Amino acid sequence: RFVPDAVVCQCGCDALVEDPMNCFNLTxxxxxxxxxxxxxxxxxxxxxxxxxxxxxxxxxxxxxxTADLLNKTxxxxxxxxxxxxxxxxxxxxxxxxxxxxxLNTKEHIExxxxxxxxxxxxxxxxSTS
Length: 129
What we know:
Elements: E1 7-12, H1 28-39, E2 45-50, H2 55-69, H3 106-120
Parallel strand pairs: 1-2
């Protein structure tokens, strides 16, 4: 079994809702849950940004993930700055889920979960009790 000394987590944002290069419907909340799970292992964690073709939503996501890791609650309003106009029409930090139809079958999701759990069984993180 692999016992990591540290974790590097690359937080790409091209799977976010409204990204022009994807067909996914993820929000920063869903990515944050994954990141908090990895952070709960108590190992040194290097978090990297990455990906995202909707620059404003990428910035929103990285901001949300950073706040999650620091246990900070942020106001939903984007503060005024030189690029404020790009965050309209609502000028908020939160990214709502989209209306994309979920075409995943229950069988496909179960296969993905089995595969991921199989990979994770090879990692021996510290106990998170």
